[in-house]
Amino acid sequence: MTRSVIEICAGLATGEFSSVEITQDYLARIALHNPALNCFISVTGELALEQARQADAVRAAGNAGALTGVPIAHKDLFCTDGVRTSCGSRILDNFIAPYDATVIEQFNQGGTVMLGKTNMDEFAMGSSNENSYYGSVANPWNLKHVPGGSSGGSAAAVAAGLAPAATGTDTGGSIRQPAAFCGVTGIKPTYGRVSRYGMIAFASSLDQGGPFARSAEDCALLLQTMAKFDPRDSTSSEQAVPDYSAGLGQGIEGLKIGLPKEYFADGLDSRIAGVIETAIDELRKLGAEIKEISLPNTGLSIPTYYVVAMAECSSNLSRFDGVRFGHRCEKPVDLEDLYKRSRGEGFGAEVKRRILIGTYALSAGYYDAYYLKAQQLRRMIKDDFQSAFDSVDLILGPTTPEVAFEIGAKTDDPVSMYLQDIYTISLNLAGLPGMSLPVGFVDGLPVGMQLIGNYFDEAGLLAAAHSYQQVSDWHLQTPGLTS
Amino acid sequence: MTLKSEDIRNIAHLARLHIDEDAIDDYVDDLSNILSLVDQMNQIDSSSVAPLSNPLDATQRLRADEVTETNQRDKFQQIAPDVADGFYRVPKVIE
After folding, report:
1. Which of residues 11-70 of B touch A (CB under 8 A)?
2. Three-class SS state of A263
3. H-helix or E-strand containing A436?
4. Alpha-carbon distances, residue B20 vs A256, A321, A322, A344 (angstroms)
5. Is residue B35 within 8 Å of residue A357, measured between CB atoms?
6. Which pLDDT score is estimated for A136?
7. Band of residue B58 on the pLDDT scale cut at 50, 70, 90
8. Exposure string (b/e) for A39-65, b if CB count within 10 Å is 16 or more?
9. For the segment A13-58, what is each residue's pLDDT rounded down to a tens digit?
10. What is the ipTM of this complex?
11. How far apart are CA A453 and CA A385, in angstroms?
12. By CB neighbour count within 10 A (0-12 exposed, 13-18 middle, 19+ buried), where does A292 fall?
């Protein structure tokens, strides 16, 4: 059960299997492995089989699209009409979304089959999936290790073959880091490329949805369905969407790839550096021109990111007040007690920390010192990238400084957890697209390589990753789960 | 930057967030550590840099002021904790 999306599309098209049959296979595999992995918060088996029957009927009528009948898992942050959308939080444990996110609507229109909603760090705040109200997710490569976060359930589900593809969201690395930790391919598009409508907001100027799959080729197909201008998202881009699959063959001959020296400095596991060097050699053989570049403000990206993200989260999460939906405390004595206890009981520790820091950073007398300062540094970080893209086509480096760590290893120290995001968060601050693809192993755990593109150059990223995957087989490796 | 337990109580009140008294000390430590990390921002003089709020420097798109949503009150109130006669119920606010 390690079929790619492309292989499933081919099997459905030739009649090798029906959508109902392949959906049943995945549901059986979820039933077998999810108890140990905990990738899914909700498995929507009945709905999946209903959608699969419809997809088979659409295909029989000769109306199948590119993804008709393909099973997929969705991060439990995308609102799904009539299906619980928990965002990994107790406060939304009873929340049956009353509408579909645009991304869900687009996949439904494309005829895909939803297997279930995947586990995640509460409100997408975390780098290990340990902040979920529904428990940690196990990394399929070593069950004692984290899958990364926040989209840990999606990444682990694809790695373990519980779904051929999954959606995720990325505010500071939440697609790329779990993709790296689980040995799958994931892309975070340019800010504004994929609609945020119906994606439960964490930090609105950073959030962006994207796909996980087994290869760049699969990601191209999925992104084609996700990327679209949406008038319901006020920051959605009107830029035309190219044909990503058609662009995959453009190769990387003559492509200029920059290696930021700051991404290979202290703090990077030297064994990861070695694996990345080997991958760079492959790209050189394919004709890429490799040069060193500098992103001098990289070190400032962590403090800058956490101020922006926490300030925006404290505003966004003020909507969860126990009045119109979600958890409400028992017997509130007055309105203030209702707000405070509903939120106090509903949110977990990391979400509370971030709301408190964000509230502090935005409070009277501190706004200029924190939020305004962070916005100024944000421009400097963006300017670094823009200067770099004057002389290179793509930027390359490790996705993470370490491979997947053990469950519990960093939970007592929030700051050490934040430092995991050093190579990923600056892209969100700048709004640039990035992807992670598997390039080897350290200690039996996958290593991810990050490619960073210029604005709206998702096609260039996917093509470069595809070229590499044509001459390597890291993306074809699968964890040794029993059966 | 070091916070005191009184600061935590004030911020928690501003955020309308109940914090258990016996957890205050942990929040003092965690939040002070996070603010120390954040204070690294002051290593750089950025006073002449224009703040960036949208990563693409885009401005808010406007639309015509037309009704586009339909009334779905019954559907929305099905998931509400406490409703009566089409209203959301909360504890008494005015004596």
Report:
1. 11-12, 14-20, 27, 30-31, 33-35, 37-44, 46-47, 49-56, 58, 60-61, 63
2. helix
3. strand A434-442
4. 55, 18, 19, 9
5. yes
6. 97
7. confident
8. bbbbbbbebbbebbbbbbebbeeeebb
9. 999 999 999 999 999 999 999 999 999 999 999 999 999 999 999 9
10. 0.95
11. 10
12. exposed
Q: How confident is the model at residue A482 (pLDDT cuts 50, 70, 90)?
A: low
What are the residue boundaries of the structural domains of chain B, listed by start?
5-43
Q: For chain A, what are the domain ranges?
A: 5-256+433-476
pLDDT of residue A417: 86
What is the SS3 assignment for A357? helix
- Residues A377, B45: Cα–Cα separation, whole Å: 9
Residue with tokens 């997929």: A72
Q: Catalytic: which of A86, A128, A136, A150?
A: A150
Query: Both tokens of residue B2?
Result: 């070091």
Q: pLDDT per residue over A206-235, tens digit each?
A: 999 999 999 999 999 999 999 999 999 999
pTM for the predicted model, two decimal places: 0.97
- In this structure, what DSSP letter does residue A227 have? B
**Residue A17, both tokens:** 């299997």
Residue with tokens 């939906």: A325
**Chain B residues close to A303, C-beta within 8 Å:** 37-41
Length of chain B equals 95
Q: Of A455, A385, A457, A460, which is closest to residue B58 (Cα–Cα)?
A: A455
Asked whether the predicted pLDDT for residue A253 surpasses 90, the reply is yes
- Answer whether A341's CB lies under 8 Å from A332's CB: yes
Percent of chain B with pLDDT over 90: 82
CATH 3.40.630.30 holds for A5-256+433-476: no
Residue A117: active-site member: no
Q: How confident is the model at residue A345 (pLDDT cuts 50, 70, 90)?
A: very high
Find the Cα–Cα–Cα–Cα dihedral A231, A236, A240, A241, rounded to 10°.
Answer: -110
* pLDDT average, residue stretch A167-179: 98
**Alpha-carbon gap, residue B49 to B31, rounded angstroms:** 28
* Closest Cα in chain B, distance from residue A443 (Å): 30
> Which residue in A has a C-alpha nearest to residue B8's C-alpha?
A356
d(CA B32, CA A346): 24
Q: Which residues of A316-352 are buried (b: 16+ CB within 10 A; e: fewer)?
A: bbbebbbbbbbbbbeebeebeebbbbbbbebbbebbb
Residue located via tokens 């290179």: A392
Instruction: Give the integer Cα–Cα distance in Å for A361 and A247.
Output: 44
Q: Quick check: helix, strand or coil at residue A257?
A: strand
pLDDT digits (tens, 9 = 90+) for A321-344: 999 999 999 999 999 999 999 999
How far apart CA A184 and CA A399 sit, in angstroms, is 12
- The alpha carbon of residue A342 is apart from the nearest alpha carbon of chain B, in Å, by 8
Residues in Cβ contact with B3 at an 8 Å cutoff, skipping those fewer than 6 apart: B28, B31, B32, B35
Helix (H, G, I), strand (E, B) or coil at A335: helix
3-state secondary structure of A478: coil
